[in-house]
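Section 5.1 Outputs to date
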Amino acid sequence: TRGTGDHGISDLNNRIRLSKTSIYFQVIGDIDELNCQIGIARSCLNNDIITHEQLYNIQKVLENIHPYVR
């Protein structure tokens, strides 16, 4: 640790400190969970190339959303 303790606060990449109960962390977690679920769905597809590609494209969009969630 850096000696600051947890105290329910987390640092973001831009050095902003937010409560771990902030809606920011909820949104990021929800996006990550959706992305994981889509990945599971993709892994279950058998020879459905079109759906596989569509889901892959959705995952790419979700990954690109992260920098804009503030």
